[in-house]
């Protein structure tokens, strides 16, 4: 039985009470009467004491357990001295890159260095290093060689095993080895960090703590008594009968007959599921040299992500073993409520003065209502980090947070900028059967279609919206998180409520593509699902007497996308008179399934063999830019590229000045504005601005 997050006996420092804000200097510690910290968190973000920032959640949670917690935010990593600022912690150092992966934070999809950083005061760039977890950990080892070191955050989560690194274009070993950390905590680590702190406080050695869910560590060998499933090869050698597959495929017939998406797994030794079974995946050296084995290892990892049936994984790195324990169990509603209602100031640390922190400004009047995502989009890392099981806050807790924002934020104007999370409309959605959920190994509950065991009723969310906007002093409640439109249409009343009351003129939505081949590799629904939602959106907007627009997002250069797929998408945009403003190029983040496709050219959504399905990957810079150019077919800067590509593709018939042509045959003079056909009502704000130039722009003409 898992202990409740707040059931532990409090550590002695509970008597000191909560700090007004967690200290970032010795002077602040002295003012609090502290001679030392029990835990010190090093983070790549500016310290914002708000439940949307990881360092604040972990810091306040440990404080609630009775521990004294200090913060070292964005230290100068060129010297170990800043890492000595708060002295030696009594228990451990915790290292986080911040809310974002440091490499994604610092580089664009084309590997160009960014000049800004939304998590830094005044949006200043260059305040964190590349691969921040590794660099911070190395400096800490220089400053405090024998203090236990624990790494976490999404950066560590996505690098817990050997992983493809887009920025160096090679497979790197587990971050545990490069950071020399004692322990890695992956996912939302509240359960693990609380248990770890209490066990260390009781005198246990960190080297002896090997049973924490959601943890990874390095050991010399698999201990005696463990049954090992050897899944290091994809080749069938020897007997004619193939060995038992650790991942039995399931189909619709099995699902409908059994009511369960995955039958119990057969182990190679035939002994069935067991708590003393570990799966050996291909070694680092093997996946580094063999892309097929890399895809195979990725498939195994993603099949072992359900905390109710996942088993430990082990991966050799030379003569050492990286061991991954099963994922953490989701927090119950009461536990999640308590985490979000800790005594946050909901403000940046006072040391930053009046400096603006863009990431905070964006979310300061928003409320996170849930965690997790069962969509399973292959290009996204939310599921790998937060899990597929939705963790819900209670309606009362959400309402209390809105009231706190209303009553305490001096800049609150009556508008809640978002009630959401990883996905806006998955709150309280779950499997209808706990037995089914405990045995399921599907990567998505909504692909290729919505699972019949999934409760899709969004009526509770409608009631939450109504209660929130009825609060005195609240003028508007907006929904800004990404919307799962294939779920939304399952409850038309939800779409009506959303469109009538909670859209601020524009609603972001992400069909990602129009063609089935790339959509299948993304695990996204077909464009017809988007069209059904758009029909409801426009219908309810008319009924409400509002002029509102959808802003669809699309991905260029995703694995499985060919040039002709991007051409068809461009033609769809042209037919619908839509000009995409914000365009995303596929970014291969570590551990994502789409990244395994990008690197290996295989499809790990199915069993990987030497002859299994190959996936085209868009790797060259020229082709990546071409795919992006198709999305912005209306931009004159892209016309030369598109004309050349269309001729090579045998589609020169699309070059011309007619309504059915994609691009004109000649470039306009630079000094003249380009007149484009008017856009449909669901065009972006950028499009409307092009159609109605400002007075200053007209004067310049």
Describe this structure in words.
By secondary structure, the protein is of the alpha/beta class. It is 32% helix and 12% strand. The protein is built from 26 helices and 23 strands. A hairpin with a 2-residue loop joins strand 12 (313-317) and strand 13 (320-324). The chain is globular. The N and C termini lie far apart (72 Å).
Tally of alpha and pi helices: 26
Q: What is the count of β-strands?
A: 23
Taken as a percent bin, the fraction of beta residues is 5-15%
Q: Please give the radius of gyration in angstroms.
A: 26 Å
Write the layout of secondary structure elements.
Layout: H1 26-32, E1 39-43, E2 48-49, H2 54-64, E3 69-73, E4 92-96, H3 102-106, H4 132-143, E5 149-152, H5 153-157, E6 163-165, E7 170-172, H6 175-179, E8 183-185, H7 190-201, E9 215-219, E10 227-230, H8 252-258, E11 277-280, H9 284-289, H10 291-303, E12 313-317, E13 320-324, H11 333-340, E14 347-348, H12 358-363, E15 366-368, E16 370-371, H13 382-386, E17 391-392, H14 395-408, E18 415-416, E19 418-420, H15 434-439, H16 459-469, E20 476-477, H17 485-488, H18 492-501, E21 506-512, H19 516-522, H20 527-544, E22 549-556, H21 563-575, E23 584-585, H22 593-600, H23 621-631, H24 639-648, H25 685-691, H26 695-700
Parallel strand pairs: 1-3, 1-4, 4-5, 5-8, 10-11, 11-12, 15-19, 18-20, 21-22, 22-23
Antiparallel strand pairs: 2-14, 6-7, 8-9, 9-13, 12-13, 16-17
């Amino acid at each position: 039985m898992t202990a409740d997050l707040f059931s532990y006996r409090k550590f002695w420092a509970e008597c000191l009470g909560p700090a007004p804000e967690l200290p970032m200097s010795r002077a602040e510690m002295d003012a609090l009467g502290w001679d030392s910290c029990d835990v010190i968190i090093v983070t790549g973000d500016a310290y914002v004491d708000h439940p949307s920032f990881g360092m604040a959640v972990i810091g306040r949670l440990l404080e609630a357990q009775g521990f004294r917690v200090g913060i070292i935010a964005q230290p100068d990593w060129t010297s170990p001295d800043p890492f000595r600022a708060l002295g030696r912690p009594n228990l451990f150092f915790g290292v986080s890159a911040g809310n974002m992966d440091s490499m994604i934070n610092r580089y664009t999809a084309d590997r160009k260095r960014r000049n800004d950083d939304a998590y830094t005061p005044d949006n200043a760039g260059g305040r964190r290093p590349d691969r921040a977890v590794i660099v911070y950990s190395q400096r800490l080892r220089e400053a405090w060689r024998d203090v236990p070191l624990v790494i976490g955050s999404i950066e560590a989560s996505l690098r817990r095993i050997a992983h493809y690194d887009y920025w160096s274009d090679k497979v790197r070993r587990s971050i545990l080895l490069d950071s020399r950390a004692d322990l890695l905590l992956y996912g939302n680590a509240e359960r693990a960090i609380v248990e770890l702190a209490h066990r260390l406080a009781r005198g246990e050695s960190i080297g002896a703590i090997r049973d924490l869910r959601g943890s990874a560590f390095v050991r010399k060998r698999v201990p005696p008594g463990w049954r090992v499933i050897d899944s290091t090869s994809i080749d069938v050698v020897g007997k004619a009968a193939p060995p038992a597959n650790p991942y039995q495929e399931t189909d619709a017939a099995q699902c409908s007959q059994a009511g369960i998406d995955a039958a119990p797994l057969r182990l190679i030794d035939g002994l069935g599921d067991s708590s003393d079974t570990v799966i050996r995946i291909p070694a680092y050296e093997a996946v580094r040299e063999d892309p097929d084995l890399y895809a195979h290892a990725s498939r195994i990892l993603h099949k072992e992500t359900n905390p109710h049936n996942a088993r430990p994984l082990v991966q050799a790195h030379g003569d050492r073993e990286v061991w991954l324990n099963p994922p953490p169990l989701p927090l119950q509603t009461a536990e999640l409520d308590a985490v979000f209602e800790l005594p946050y100031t909901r403000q940046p640390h006072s040391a930053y003065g009046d400096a603006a922190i863009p990431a905070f400004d964006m979310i300061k009047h928003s409320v996170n209502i849930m965690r997790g995502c069962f969509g399973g989009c292959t290009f996204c890392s939310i599921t790998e980090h937060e899990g597929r099981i939705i963790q819900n806050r209670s309606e009362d807790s959400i309402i209390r947070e809105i009231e706190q924002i209303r009553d305490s934020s001096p800049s609150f104007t009556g508008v809640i900028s978002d009630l959401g999370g990883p996905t806006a409309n998955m709150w309280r959605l779950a499997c209808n059967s706990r037995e089914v959920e405990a045995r399921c190994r599907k990567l998505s509950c909504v692909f290729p279609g919505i699972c019949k065991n999934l409760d899709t009723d969004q009526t509770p969310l409608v009631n939450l919206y109504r209660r929130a906007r009825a609060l005195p002093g609240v003028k508007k409640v907006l929904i800004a998180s990404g919307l799962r439109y294939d779920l939304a249409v399952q409850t038309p009343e939800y779409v009506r409520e959303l469109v009538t009351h909670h859209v601020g003129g524009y609603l972001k939505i992400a069909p990602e593509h129009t063609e089935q081949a790339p959509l299948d590799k993304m695990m996204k629904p077909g464009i017809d699902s988007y069209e059904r939602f758009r029909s409801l959106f426009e219908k309810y907007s008319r009924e409400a007497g509002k002029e509102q627009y959808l802003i669809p997002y699309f991905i260029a250069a995703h694995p499985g996308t060919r040039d002709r797929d991007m051409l068809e998408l461009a033609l769809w945009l042209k037919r619908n008179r839509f000009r995409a403003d914000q365009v995303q190029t596929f970014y291969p983040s570590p551990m994502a399934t789409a990244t395994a496709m990008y690197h290996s050219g295989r499809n790990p959504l199915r069993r990987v063999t030497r002859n299994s399905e190959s996936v085209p990957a868009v790797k060259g810079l020229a082709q990546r830019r071409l795919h992006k150019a198709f999305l912005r077919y209306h931009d004159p800067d892209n016309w030369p590229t598109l004309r050349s590509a269309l001729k090579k593709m045998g589609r020169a018939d699309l070059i011309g000045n007619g309504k059915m042509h994609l691009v004109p045959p000649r470039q306009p003079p630079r000094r003249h504005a380009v007149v484009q056909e008017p856009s449909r009502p669901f065009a972006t704000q950028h499009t409307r601005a092009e159609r109605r130039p400002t007075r200053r722009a007209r004067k310049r003409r």
